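All the exercises in this workshop are built on plain-text protein records. The record below serves as our worked example for the rest of this section.
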Amino acid sequence: MKVVSGFSLRKLGRDHILVPEGMGLVNFNKMISLNSTAAYLWECVQEKEFTGDELVQALLDKYDVAEDVARKDVESIIAKWLEVGIITE
């Protein structure tokens, strides 16, 4: 998988927002909110191809979480990212 280019990660309070770059006017329908864990994973995959296993390992390296929980979370976030079109397979 690979991140679709053209998104900037911005911190907004406790949340992180993915915003398409080069927007003439702000379109709030195109902004995607990420919690701190999702933002961490997003930062891990910038500028490279990645697999779900690599995201699972990133969670295991940073957080005290069981592998099956990390895998379920990664599967969920990958599905969401594919749905909104910010990554490609």
